[in-house]
Write a structure and sequence with these properties.
The complex is a heterodimer of chains A (425) and B (648).
Chain A lengths: L1 H6 L2 H13 L16 H34 L16 H29 L8 E8 L2 E6 L4 E4 L1 E5 L4 E7 L4 E4 L7 E3 L5 E5 L5 E7 L11 E7 L1 H12 L50 H4 L33 H8 L32 E2 L4 E2 L2 H9 L1 H4 L22 H13 L2
Parallel strand pairs in A: 1-5, 4-10
Antiparallel strand pairs in A: 1-2, 2-3, 5-8, 6-7, 6-9, 9-10, 11-12
Helix pairs in contact in A: 3-4, 7-10, 8-10
Chain B lengths: L1 E6 L13 H6 L4 H29 L10 H36 L7 H20 L27 H29 L12 H33 L12 H35 L6 H14 L15 H29 L8 H23 L2 H7 L3 H31 L1 E2 L2 H27 L16 H31 L1 E2 L34 H6 L16 E6 L2 E6 L2 H4 L10 H4 L9 H17 L4 H20 L8
Parallel strand pairs in B: 1-4
Antiparallel strand pairs in B: 2-3, 4-5
The chains are: A alpha+beta (425), B mainly alpha (648).
């Protein structure tokens, strides 16, 4: 009778645990850290799986032993005398040494992977500067003189070496399906490199708490074929749409410039290979209609890369208004925007505080990866950025919006500006 | 061997009003009362921190939550962490240090009873101070580990971080004072025959914890003082425009922060080591190893701190070093699990609520320990760190570890504190709702982390595959909350209606079970002489300790003279207190001199706290100086007053 009562909890408990564990299998996980698509990711993956399997084994052994003990030695009435054993030196030595041996099996590949992944990047790597801001990502390709924001294009099969810095507080650069994260530390430059092995679109996140909109500091990564990457860079080097053609040939096309110098993290310079690394799969993604902007086709974006953030309920926009890009262009030359933003080709727009907007029209997202890049969202963003993104340092501009500073643009004016920015493909 | 004690006819007494009611609590120096003050205060903060958690979980139930703003969310997760660590687990452990250590070592109080009271009042002040920030819509919001430069005036210009730094400093004073107190107590006030290796394991773990506190808290004091100087006096310790290195904060913080987590777990380990043997009816397996592993954990705990910094780019050599030390510390920790299993093996197991919680610690801490070892590998940790995988890990070790152990202690010692036994039925409801709720809340977080969900995010987008596990986690959190309601009801209801406990409701082994429940203010009528690790089993159930090392037995008898006349002979405690009637003699009647109650520790604590109030009020110098003056004068008066009334 008592036996049954005690056993009653065992089955539901085990069932619950099984259900929870199985909930992991076959579930939709687009940002999983497993199966990461770079040699770096692959090395880490191998190590993580080894740790996980070792952990699961220990888990089953210890919890199994515990359950066995609870069932075998339960004796509520105290009918059985407990065996008065209170120590066993052999056991103590045994269960000290065995875990030590298991840990050695983890430690050795760990140290090996540390040195492999922190070796200096190969000299021919693509250099990318990642500069963290509250709460958006600046990306530069110093070899090509290109500056962009919140979207990162990388060629498959070529090592990318990232120099990570921050303009303000700490951030962390994380693309779960491509790399383990590396922090952006003020007054430091950190480095991480990896070689993407397949074409696709990926989600990136800030992974170090950085203030109000830490959750909203996201970015998108597009791994494309080398030819597509070249096309992308070539396009990014051009001046903004509609700007004077006489503006510099000086800015464009610095190919093959000297790589950014980097602090050596180890003396070994190795090629980026690890056992079992997959050969790169460079499936072209862009079709003819994208080549004018040389960007990842919107039609091929997976659902989880397209932000679904709802806009604030109390922020409205006059739907009847149609923006005029030419009017917007004229406005832009002397609008407050130029204090913070750069548009290459508009000489007055040389601000360094906010994202570079030269080709903003061809990006898939705005506002640090949290809204899709379309007219509607652009208009709302300009109208009241702090409402759209908590703590945003970009002030509101909508005439009747309430906030820290007064706004002065009508919906028509904002629509014109948005139309202009959308045209900057 | 007999001793003769001669006592005055009347011992001097404290002001009458301190003998009962509210004043008796405000003026207490009795470690048992102070322990209860810590207990009720920390359980209140547990509810506050729990509400913060429920708000967090409600916001994160689904994607793009709008329950709270991002600003409020950031305050919530910061305060949840700060509250649970500094205002719940530490003071709840302190409740047990206070209540139990003197009882377990056969002493009448701690070494410095007034300093003990001071520690509590400072803690109360600190907790209130940091939570008053909510009323200013300025609760701390940079995370419980407040990384620079986010916490510098440039990036946190408001009052939020001012409240945080000052609150932490105040709480640090409380912990440090208590640390010195308990170390002195354990070294100096053990009963005759209680060698170190005969101390109960809880006292051992508590003792080791005090050393960690005394060595680790000064480090955070330094780190926070630098930040205070930056914020209030314009220095540049963490000011990045002046070239400061944010890693200074991280190293200092984690040099404290890692020992801190061992400070949080060792007392719970100690409680489990008390509970398991009693409800297995056999001694603790491997007592010496349990003691040495505790010491080793404390020592190694100071050598692993940078495993919190594997993503900051310290370089491969530093990464490798800390990876190895972190793996090493898993060994003494794992050994404890095995010894607990060994304790239960072959035992006669009784599943009281306390026992269920103790077993839960073994089960859940194992899981937390496994994920911890996974974090110890830096390349793998670069995927795990700052994701929900870490959140899962530390909740398993802190809730599934520390809280389970502390709940075990609450149910185990409730009879000693109140004289009654809590309802087993209600306790079972609390236990299962908590254990299942905890699993439902935190196990899915492992998957969320492996599925790429970063931590400390006020919301997440739809379509990332994170909804289902977040739903589970929210449901589990509410289950835990419901379970807690059972405990609260059980706690208060059993005080009136619970079964009378008597001295030893469980068949305990150690000295605290020899005396009445609740104990008289003097604890022991006669300080017992201890002959083994399990002094009570020696007397009541000698079969249980046949294989345990024993010292030479000593019959202790005391001749008592009262007012110069022989008043009889007190035999061993077995005669007087084991079978004690409910009415027991007062300290006066036994001629025991107890410390005089006084409100000076309270006044000193609040005066010290008021110095900080002046600081946060834009450096209001008149208030600061006035408060400091009151503090110094009160301290002076306190130090010049003898602890006990005069005896000739």
């Amino acid at each position: 009778m008592t036996r049954d009562l005690r056993m009653r909890w065992l089955t539901p408990a085990l069932a619950l645990l099984l259900a929870l564990s199985l909930s992991a299998c076959g579930s939709f996980a687009p940002n999983t850290i497993f199966g990461a698509h770079s040699e770096f990711g692959h090395s880490v993956d191998t190590l993580t799986r080894r740790l996980l399997y070792a952990g699961l084994t220990v888990f089953v052994l210890i919890e199994g032993l515990l359950i066995y003990i609870l069932v075998k030695f339960r004796d509520h009435e105290g009918n059985r005398e407990a065996k008065q054993i209170h120590g066993n030196t052999t056991l103590e030595i045994g269960w000290t040494l065995v875990p030590a041996v298991i840990l050695a099996f983890i430690a050795v590949p760990t140290i090996k992977t540390i040195f492999e992944t922190q070796a200096k990047a190969i000299p021919s790597a693509l250099q990318v500067e990642v500069i963290g801001h509250q709460w958006w990502w600046e990306f530069r390709y110093p070899q090509y003189g290109v500056t962009t924001a919140n979207e990162l294009y990388l060629p498959v099969g070529r090592t990318a070496n990232f120099a990570l810095t921050t303009k303000d507080v700490l951030h962390s650069f994380w693309i779960p399906q491509l790399n383990g994260k590396r922090d952006l530390i003020s007054n430091h430059t950190n480095y991480i490199w990896f070689t993407p092995d397949s074409t696709f679109a990926w989600n990136g996140f800030c992974a170090e708490y950085c203030g109000t909109s830490h959750a909203n500091m996201r970015f998108k990564v597009f791994t494309v074929t080398p030819a597509e990457f070249d096309a992308y860079i070539k396009h990014q080097q051009t001046l903004a749409v509609g700007s004077a053609p006489t503006a510099a040939a000086a800015d464009s096309g610095k190919t093959g410039a000297a790589p950014v110098t980097q602090v050596a993290t180890s003396t070994a310079a190795t090629t980026p290979a690890s056992a079992g690394a997959k050969p790169p799969v460079a499936t072209p993604v862009m079709n003819v209609s994208d080549t004018s902007t040389a960007t990842y086709p919107r039609s091929k974006l997976p659902e989880w890369v397209i932000p679904k953030t709802p806009t604030p309920a109390n922020l409205t926009f006059d739907e009847s208004v149609v923006g005029d890009a030419a009017r917007g262009a004229a406005m832009f030359k002397t609008a407050p925007c130029i204090a913070c933003h750069t548009v290459k080709g508009v000489p007055t727009a040389a601000g360094m505080i906010g994202p570079n907007l030269t080709h903003v029209g061809s990006r898939t997202t705005i506002a640090g990866g949290i809204y899709p890049n379309d007219l509607k969202h652009l208009e709302l963003w300009i109208k009241n950025a702090p409402e759209m993104k908590a703590g945003s340092l970009m002030p509101l501009f909508g005439k009747n919006e309430k906030g820290a500073t007064p706004g002065f643009y009508t919906d028509q004016q904002i629509a014109d500006l948005a139309a202009y920015l959308s045209s900057l493909k | 061997m007999a001793t003769t004690v001669s006592l005055p006819a009347h011992a001097a007494s404290a002001p009458k009003k301190y003998e009962s009611g509210l004043w008796s609590w405000l003026a207490t120096t009795d470690h048992k009362r102070i322990g209860q003050l810590y207990l009720y205060t920390s359980l209140t903060w547990f509810i506050v921190g729990g509400i913060e958690a429920l708000l967090i979980r409600t916001q994160l139930y689904g994607p793009n939550g709008r329950i709270v703003s991002a600003q409020t969310y950031n305050e919530l997760f910061t305060m949840h962490g700060t509250t649970m660590i500094f205002l719940v687990i530490m003071p709840l452990s302190a409740a047990f240090f206070n209540y139990l250590i003197p009882l377990q070592i056969g002493a009448r109080d701690v070494a410095f009873p007034r300093l003990n009271a001071f520690s509590y009042w400072v803690f109360l002040f600190g907790g209130l101070f940091i939570n008053v920030s909510w009323l200013f819509h300025a609760a701390p919001n940079a995370g419980w580990f407040g990384y620079a430069p986010l916490t510098t005036p440039t990036y946190s210009p408001g009052l939020n971080i001012d409240f945080w730094v000052i609150g932490l400093q105040i709480l640090g004073v409380s912990s440090l004072a208590a640390g010195f107190n308990f170390i002195t107590t354990v070294i100096n006030m053990r009963a005759p025959g209680m060698h170190f290796m005969r101390m109960p394991v809880f006292t051992w773990m508590a003792f080791i914890t005090q050393f960690m506190i005394v060595l680790a808290f000064p480090i955070i004091t330094v780190a926070v003082t630098f930040l205070m100087l930056d914020r209030f006096f314009g220095t540049n310790f963490y000011e990045i425009t002046a070239g400061a290195d944010p890693l200074l904060w991280q190293h200092l913080f984690w040099l404290f922060g890692h020992p801190e987590v061992y400070i949080l777990i060792l007392p719970a380990f100690g409680l489990v080591s008390e509970v398991l043997p009693v409800f297995s009816r056999k001694p603790l397996f491997g007592y010496p190893v349990m003691v040495y592993s505790g010491i080793l954990i404390a020592f190694l705990g100071f050598g692993v701190w940078a495993h919190h910094m594997f993503a900051v780019g310290m370089g491969p050599i530093a990464d490798s070093f800390f990876s190895i030390t972190t793996m090493l510390i898993a060994i003494p920790t794992g050994v404890k699990i095995f010894n607990w299993l060994g304790t239960m093996w072959g035992g006669s197991l009784r599943f009281t609520t306390a026992m269920k919680y103790a077993i839960a610690l073994v089960a859940f801490f194992t899981i937390g320990g496994i994920s911890g070892v996974m974090h110890a590998s830096p390349p793998s940790d670069l995927q795990q760190t700052d994701s929900y995988f870490i959140v899962a890990h530390f909740h398993y070790v802190l809730f599934g570890g520390s809280m389970m152990g502390l709940f075990a202690g609450l149910y185990f010692y409730y009879p000693k504190i109140t004289g009654r036994i809590m309802s087993e039925r209600l306790g079972s409801w609390h236990f299962w709702l908590t254990a299942i709720g905890m699993t439902l809340t935190f196990f899915p977080m492992h998957f969320l982390g492996l599925d790429g969900m970063p931590r400390r995010i006020s919301t997440y987008d739809a379509g990332q595959g994170w909804e289902f596990n977040n739903h589970l986690a929210t449901v589990g959190a509410f289950m835990i909350a419901v379970g807690l309601l059972f405990m609260i009801y059980n706690w208060f209801h059993s005080m009136k209606a619970g079964e009378i406990a008597g001295n030893d409701p469980w068949g305990g082994a150690t000295l605290e079970w020899m005396i009445p429940s609740p104990p008289p203010d003097y604890n022991f009528a006669t300080i017992p002489t201890v002959t083994s690790r399990y002094p009570l089993w020696d007397r009541k159930s000698p079969k249980l300790t046949t294989d345990v090392p024993h010292g030479a037995a000593a019959e202790q008898e005391v001749d008592v003279t009262l007012g110069g006349k022989n008043a009889g002979r007190l035999k061993t405690p077995a005669d007087t207190q084991l079978n004690a009637p409910t009415a027991h003699p007062s300290a006066n009647e036994l001629g025991i001199v107890m410390p005089t109650p006084t409100v000076k520790p309270l006044i000193a604590a609040f005066a010290l706290g008021s110095v900080f109030i002046g600081l946060i009020m834009h450096k209001n110098l008149p208030i600061m100086f006035l408060a400091a003056a009151i503090f110094v004068l009160t301290l002076y008066s306190w130090l010049l007053t003898p602890l006990e009334p005069e005896h000739h």
